């Protein structure tokens, strides 16, 4: 009977962590693993500059909007941490597409309210995780879509075409570096 009690107590301890253990987990350990590398910084500068310039020029010379704020953050991943799983084409394109689709659905069916914006972000995170397309910048897409009251066409331009442009330029620019091979996976 006693061993059953211990198992029950352990289960309760997992569900309700003691305050000292919970707070101790917030201290962090060690130092940042990030390294300073001038060549990587220059690749990020050039890649981000060219990509956003292309999208901004397309916005200026055509009637469509090709640029949205989360694309700047996508450039950080595509050129700064190009080999990370969340920086790969599947994640950039799929993450933006799924998150924006979620945002559009929430907006068109539930409206623009504080709770719908929050729901849009939460659903986008869940759907990206379930489809293996997690891309942190795309988590902002429902906010952009709902606050902007965008039409369904926003899903194609800028979201889909813009994220494809980011990936194409990331492939071209990252692979100019001898020590880089981008992408590390497509699917």
UniProtKB/TrEMBL annotation:
List each coiled-coil range.
Answer: none
KW Membrane (keyword) present: yes
**Can the keyword Membrane be found in this entry's annotation?**
yes
List the transmembrane segments.
41-58, 91-109, 115-131, 152-173
Top-rank lineage group of the source organism: Bacteria
Where is each HPP transmembrane region domain found? 35-183
Q: Which Pfam families match?
A: TM_HPP
Keywords of this entry: Membrane, Transmembrane, Transmembrane helix
* Protein name (Swiss-Prot/TrEMBL): HPP transmembrane region domain-containing protein
């Amino acid at each position: 009977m006693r061993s059953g009690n211990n198992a029950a107590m352990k289960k309760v301890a997992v569900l309700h962590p003691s305050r000292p253990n919970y707070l101790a987990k917030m201290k962090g350990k060690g130092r940042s693993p990030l390294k300073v590398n001038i060549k990587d910084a220059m690749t990020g500068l050039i890649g981000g500059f060219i990509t956003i310039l292309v999208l901004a020029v397309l916005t200026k010379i055509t009637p469509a909007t090709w640029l949205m704020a989360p694309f700047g953050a996508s450039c950080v991943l595509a050129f700064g941490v190009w080999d990370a799983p969340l920086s790969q084409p599947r994640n950039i394109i799929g993450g933006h597409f799924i998150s924006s689709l979620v945002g559009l659905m929430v907006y068109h069916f539930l409206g623009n309210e504080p709770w719908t914006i929050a729901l849009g972000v939460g659903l986008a995170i869940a759907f990206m995780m379930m489809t293996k397309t997690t891309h942190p910048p795309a988590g902002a897409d429902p906010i952009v879509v709902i606050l902007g009251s965008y039409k369904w066409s926003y899903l194609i331009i800028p979201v889909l075409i813009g994220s494809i442009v980011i990936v194409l330029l990331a492939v071209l620019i990252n692979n100019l570096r001898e020590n880089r091979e981008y992408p590390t996976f497509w699917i």
